[in-house]
Amino acid sequence: QVQLVESGGGLVQPGGSLRLSCTASGFTLDYFAIGWFRQAPGKEREAVSCISSADARAMYADSAKGRFTISRDNAKNTVYLQMNSLEPEDTAVYYCAAPYYSGSLYYSLSPDGYDLWGQGTQVTVSS
């Protein structure tokens, strides 16, 4: 079964850190860029970061720059999102996505080209 599974979410205090994982099953993650997105209650989904396939180039939304780091471990078929200095505004369900079915070299912070999505992991930043 082809799927992406996010993990690592939870409750953290402001200023704290979390590392999210996005693990692929049923296919090899190496060939695909991976995007991280989030959606807070009552708000639209927004981009967080993405990482390219071949050379692991990263892009970040302004809200993530300087605080979040995306990385990939192809041996583990996993992409990570290290989140530091978390703020209450970071509270959301976080999703990872891949342009799997299109088989494209899509690499962007726009969600439009991603066609395989995980189920999401909840991140809550609160004291």
Please, how many helices?
0
Cα shape: globular
The main sheet comes to: 7 strands, mixed
The radius of gyration is 14 Å
> Spans with pLDDT under 50 lasting ≥5 residues?
none
Describe the structure.
With 127 residues, this protein is an all-beta fold. The protein has strands at 3-7, 10-12, 18-25, 34-39, 46-51, 58-60, 68-73, 78-83, 92-98, 116-117, 121-125. A hairpin with a 6-residue loop joins strand 4 and strand 5.
What's the SSE blueprint?
Layout: E1 3-7, E2 10-12, E3 18-25, E4 34-39, E5 46-51, E6 58-60, E7 68-73, E8 78-83, E9 92-98, E10 116-117, E11 121-125
Parallel strand pairs: 2-11
Antiparallel strand pairs: 1-3, 3-8, 4-5, 4-9, 5-6, 7-8, 9-10, 9-11
Which short descriptors sum up this protein?
four-stranded antiparallel beta sheet, 127 residues, 11 strands, mainly beta, seven-stranded mixed beta sheet, single chain
What's this model, at a glance?
The chain is mostly beta strands and 127 residues long.
